[in-house]
User: Fold these one by one.
Assistant:
Number 1:
Amino acid sequence: MTDRRRINGPVGATIPLVFEDVEDYEQVATKAARSRAPNAVRKMYLKTGVTPSASGSAYLEIETSGKGGVSGLKLSCTVYGPRSLPRSSPFSPHIILSTHVKYAPFATKQRRGYLRDPAERDLGSHLEAALRGAIIADRWPKSGVDIIVSIIEGDQDRETSKTQGDEAWDIMNALSGCITVASAALADAGIDCVDTVAGGVAALVRDTADSSPSIVVDPIPSEHEKILASCCVAYLPTRNEVTNLWYKGDLPASDMELYTKLVEKGIQASTNANRVLLECLGETVN
Amino acid sequence: MASTQHALLSPAELAYLHAALSLTPPIRPDGRSPAQFRPLVAETGILPGTNGSARICFADGTEAIVGVKAEVERTRGGYEGEIVEGGGAEEVVTDVNDEEKKGESDWVEMTVEIPGLRDDDATTAFLGAMISEALLADGGFSRRLWINRRFHWKLYLDILLISPPLSYPLPLLSLTTHLALLATRLPRLKSEGDEDPFFDDDWAAARYLYPRNKKDGKTTARPPVTLLVMAVGNNIIFDPAKEELAVADVALAVSIGEDATTAATATGDDASLMMDVDSTTAAAAITSARNLRLLSIRTIDPPSRLTPSGVPNATNTAYGAATTQKQPEARTAEAEAVEGVWRAPRGGAKPLVMAALVHKVLEKGGIADEVLDALHAVDLG
Amino acid sequence: MPVTILAPKAMRQDYGQADKQNISDDSDDADSSNGGAELDYAELAKADAEGHTHKRPRIAGGDFEIVTPGEVITDDPQWMRGHGTYVAAGTTSIISSVAGTITRTNKLLSVRPLRARYTPEVGDLVVGRIVEVQAKRWRVDVGATQLASLPLSAINLPGGILRKRTETDELQIRTFFAEGDLLVAEVQQLFQDGGAVLHTRSLKYGKLRNGMFVAVSGMGGGGGVVRSRRQVWTLEAASGGGPIDVVLGVNGYVWISKHVETPEGLVEKTSGITNLDESVSATMYSSQNDRIGPETMREIARIRGVVTALVDNGLRVDEDMVMRGYHEAVEMAMVSSVGADDIYLGGERGEQLAAVLTAV
């Protein structure tokens, strides 16, 4: 039964042919597999005090997967404050945090606008929750601090096709980087913290369609066939406390073990990032 | 974030609430038991102009309405150009296997409207992201919207809170969304294969988005539900009211779903195993063998960190016959924890506590099970 | 069962005596008429034809007459207009400006709105929450249209009731009351715009601690706190709860707390007027709770449950109702499956409680 009331175009076949380069095609086919051990995180570079005009600042770069033309994660964070709140705002016995996370328009494969989209706002609230637990807020009554994180380059492989890899998973890595870099910038600005907080990501991945799933830390989504679940943890190592936990995926609820292990690995990744953070802060002081 | 709408409470109230909720068993301000939810009134199918709708309201007058609208949309051509390879209409493949029915996350659009909050407020963005994240967690949901290789349903979920929230609205919004999706129906497809879709005009023939069992009219798969759970001291408390959340040590939003396909096989296995056992116990086992999936967890920034701390009598300049004026700085000075004085918590939560919260939700016969049972009982009209 | 999900109730239809609808088939009826009021068009037309405005003889009628905004109450010039009414220019007829019931005081006609925010009156005992601290005064939320103000000069300063206010006090204003603090006070004076000035210059007033707060709608509509003889009393709680104070603010804010020995009590023991001064200021601005036993906390929560159940079911909240409700709640808990510790009074149990109270 077809629609006789309208003149329909031919069914199907309206999309022009797209030819792919042979070279590209091969690269996609032999997509980069994870070369690190499941427990190894990528190398990262962290430096504080990069923006002299801000009260505190930090820059974080995470190593690429090794291939040319692939950008790693590049983050820059500036902290302004503590400064007094505007006269119109009500009294606050604590410091007021405001966090802004923004992808640069050119940071991802798909260009982003200048206005923050819901995903970026959401990242901002996660970052706020992670930092709020770390700072000693009642040391600075009636004041506010602005924390601005710009994602200069997202962690995306431009040679993988659009259907491969999912941005929803990339965002976890971005958040973990944001937490680490913001923590460094806060310390640089001299705002009291109970401990240094750092982010870490762990994921349950399946490398080929029929292999059994395994847990890896610091995953690159394009290196895996499918990501089943992923979690990002913000962790205070000396207090053994988690300030922010974000998990998403699809795990059977009967298997609590798997979930607990995932979080443990996330904490491990966070501890690694924290070591870099401490070293970097040590360097700045010296 | 939860913090932007934090309740203004005095340090004495906070100290009292914290003490009452830390008792074993905890004494909640409204007398509920730790795992008890506020009674709610629910109904579905209230808006005939939508594909599916639901309404839930609490006794305090907080009320949420969800309307689901579906539109047919052309699927963007893939990079690989599947259709081109497929040839013409003659070669239309009707038996597309499930793997190929891949959905995309932008097939669902969700908006949350909370009166008194700006559209771009962080709370609204956070709530929207939380609910849609659970929905899209495994791609199983968007697969339901697949019509054929060229077209799909685009689902608009509009969540409306009728009055300004008196408590953190996440559970209310999530439960309403759950019911609305259960009641959602899409017109029956009459065209075949990759033709332009053509639908049956008869609304009575429309199929449910979540197909139902012919026998008892219940669905096997169910949309996700997000539960709010918090910990105070050693107690785990569900569905906290605003003032309870204000003294939380940690608060989590946990989303759970129920899977259809695996549930069917699981119950099948169970049934075969139980053949020789008493039939009633076997039946009970089948109903309890619910295949729960853990879809998403988020920490909710507890507003307790932003509450004003109390001043112990020892350092209070306005306390006692203090005609001799002490230093005004005494207020900001660090003080030892004194019983009966509220102190805003610092730091995060122990990983073990968080794991206990999640476990409490998920365990067999736990809260998630009971909530889904209760939602089962709602008449879906 | 942790979750109770109720089916929505069908809209209640209160059929008037004059209504000639078929009541027997009310389930279908409720859907078709949608609860709207039916107008008698024939009568309206007749009234128009006779050249009258549609007006019923209000004054001669019964006690509970409900008027809506714009409705003419009377055009008899002997009446004076009161709250909730206005007089149209060039006429003598008094017209209602709110929806509510008519009250007559001698020759004064006023309309009490069905639902309204609290309107302060001098002498009211109110419970309020500090929302803003200014240089020489606090701004207090008392549930009225305007924030009430509490000047620094209207509180008892520590170190003697009649001490002179100094600049140091102004600088330390936040040590007495800070944002979020709850206090009980009395309305001392009213401004033209409806704003109230409070004072706490009495031993009974001051900062609240050792208990729990609950806000219910005050004034009007049948439910909520009503002005009565006693707004503050102490009750002896059941099951070893000890004495508990209940403060029903006229503004609908309620405070339930553990009873602490009042300064008056101390006076009898120590019998020294100087000690009185000191003990007053000692507890007046403290935000540290005393040790409170779990039994007391449970009974406080039970009383809170009674108050919310009363309000949810549209009953008035005063000493008599709270006391009766409390005793009833204790007895309900005795027969409850959970035992005497069961203090939950929400949902159906609240309705049950209200039904018992109204039946008497």
Number 2:
Amino acid sequence: MASGVKPRVKVPKKAAAGDSITIKTLISHKMESGQRKDKEGNAIPRSIINRFTCEFNGENVVDVTMEPAISTNPYFEFEAKVPEAGEFKFTWYDDDGSVYEETKAIAIG
Amino acid sequence: MRILTGAIAAALITTTGAFADPVDDNLVINGETEIVTRTAAPAHVSDALDEVMSGWLFRKDGTRAMQADDFDNPGMIFVEQAMDTWETAEGSEGKSCSSCHNDMDSMAGVKATYPKYSEAAGKVVTLQMQMNDCRTERMGAEAWKYDKSDAINMEAALSSVSRGMPVNVAIDGPAQSTWEKGKELYYTRTGQLELSCANCHEDSYGMMIRADHLSQGQINGFPVYRLKNTKLNGVHSRFKGCVRDTRAETYAPGSDEFVALELYVASRGNGLSVEGPSIRN
């Protein structure tokens, strides 16, 4: 179990219908690649976030497969079109089976 | 023709030269906190500098932009960790920082005045030393190691609530002798390269130092998140790096010498805004 994992998301509180908005996400995670060795020469097991998804009202916005070369605290910034009021749902999948979720509501105005 | 091209190339080299002037830009954090990144030099350094400038002005566009939004500032991850520590009771007294100090926001302005003279200690202390005094004397907890993660994260958190406030360290009264000592260290050449702080940061700021832009060495932005080591770095650790680069034996973080130097260097930035956690190379 990776420690100190905390998802963070920045989404505007409201947007005009049909607008593209910028979403920023970051999850604090050590992203251990599995390639490193400890002082005794034993391989440190891989422990990364391997998938990140964002949905808007159940519809997929992005679905990212993540690989070991991605550095600590992976950060994603992307645009999404907002046709109606609703909720963004963000999900991060950890190698250890943990799933971290965050939701952000957005209003039309 | 070849000679002519050579002459033009030579002219280009001399005109572009080694100058890397600070940029003309304004820093507003989160669209609300205005940061003073250049201002008239305080009276006690006016014979050496006309204007004091934050190291932010010497960084590239991308690096500067990261600091304008807390979400993009990786230093804020460590600040959040310290915010949790602030609420966590530790030590034999069962107290947390917040047991006495309430919200972190109540500490706004504190960072701007450190290092400062402490009656209790009978000497000038840094913010980290004051934090450890709280931990050992009031909480019954173990002192944090100087400039190590727990201490530097908390210093960054305390700095973050003071952002936008002017640095204002006292250099007179009981702090004066320490300040004088710091000034002497600032102008003393050290190491095999025989360089003082002033040789680079006073005489040559705005020039290139190898591939990097040389700033005035202001410390209003500390603790800084450095892109080269992806963590927060303390003032004393930075001093140590600089002194080492002159090829000298360095003082230790937390030593009397570095406390004095921190007070003096901080005083050179009196009037600049507290900026930490800032982002630098």
Number 3:
Amino acid sequence: MIEVRDLVKVFDTRGQVVRAVDHVSTNVAKGEVLVVLGPSGSGKSTFLRCLNGLESFDEGSVAIDGLQLNDPKTDINAYRREVGMVFQHFNLFPHMTVLENLCLAQKVVRKRSKQEREAKARALLEKVGIGQKANEYPSRLSGGQQQRVAIARALSMDPKVMLFDEPTSALDPEMVGEVLDVMKTLALEGMTMVCVTHEMGFAREVADRVLFFDHGKLLEDSPPESFFTSPKDLRAQAFLRQVL
Amino acid sequence: MIKHKKAQWPWHGLTALVLVGLAVSLYYATSVISYEWRWSRVPQYFAYQAEEAQRAAGYGKVEAIVQQGSMAKVILRDEDGGEQVLDVEQSSLQLSKGDDVAEGDLIGVTRHWTAGPLAWGLWTTVWISLASGVLGLLVGLVAGLCRLSNNPTLRDLSTVYVELVRGTPLLVQIFIFYFFIGTVLNLSREFAGVAALALFTGAYVAEIVRAGVQSIARGQSEAARSLGLSASQSMRHVVLPQAFKRVLPPLAGQFISLVKDTSLVSVIAITELTKSGREAITTSFSTFEIWFCVAGLYLLINLPLSHFASRLERRLAQSD
């Protein structure tokens, strides 16, 4: 479903060149759940943002379901329609109600009828457990509720792949569970997911594979059982000692 | 520390007292220079009864005069038996029944209310403000978005525009528009005036728009783009509505400024409020009264404008 070949992303700030993503290659099969781990600044978020073109990259290629991201013939907006993204800070549109948040892209991009998009939005809100908040503004919701709306918003486009960029890092601890539950449900339903997260429990329980990044390099790519019990890379071992 | 809520009204009372004191001292000051206030001269500059002469169309006789209240219906019969009926003011009637009239003879006058110069000036100021405000908003929106564009030419051009307009006096711009561009392109003075004001306002609106758009967190457009919205769709549906809410106060200030700046187009002989005030003074000699009235009329436009802006602000704040 996702093919990443020799991806390189270089940040050049005032002559200081940093390879945020350094020759990363990986494949994600349909229905697979990837969890990306690594210390902060390891390039895992940049890697994720490269997957839907929010960050441009310098070398390599990314393809989702056969669509080449760096092919000039690819319509970037058509590409992004197939890739849902959930952000650390939710990024809900504050001037719109929850329902409008879910309907905007369906209307503008997918050109769905009012009836169709509202039915879809309400069904998704029920699914993430906040059906009764459809007409509230985001500012009236708790962080956990906002993040669940953000997930529902991304799902409203019927994406083939979902990307999660530290979806629980900005949440109060008691709200982390409700968001992870939604993500688990999605994983069980067979959604292809790439999650950058610090939730080790989630990684252990849900992930099919764990990717470990440090200094832009993909150092380890293994199933969670072997990653958490016997990591091969030294830096992965050090990282696990600190977080577990 | 516990903050006690204090009653506000004594302070508002003090405010009122200060204002009354100012008014009294103003009155005293004018009495020192022995200015004679003649407010009764002012109303005619807002509206007055214009007289219109009613004249006979040809030779004939006054056949009948029918009184209808303060009006009189005069029926004239010419030599061919043709009839002319004129309604005139009873008090202005010059003839009686049986009188001969010649073509062009004054039969009497009719009176009707007509807007005076200050009323016309107010209207001119309103429509010039409105026209240049709407145009200025459009120009400013486009220029502001160009300043944020990825295209270097668009960015450069809009920067040049903003810097040129903000760096030169509006008065000079109006002269250039009227005497130079107006002559070359054969523009009417109103067109030149509105164009100069619109371009002037546009430059400031451009900066307001740019600041507003830049103040919206990048995550908003990233979220929109990640849903498949194009850059312009994301701007239109996500960024601009939020930016508009934020820039409403400076935008309202800009339009209030614009209303006042319209007084400058009087230099190219557009008779707007300030110029009609000046003209009213030359015939009434009531300098103070007229200028106070003119100031009051500008307030009459601007106070509702700022009231409307703050109401809109409150309405948009409902999502906070």
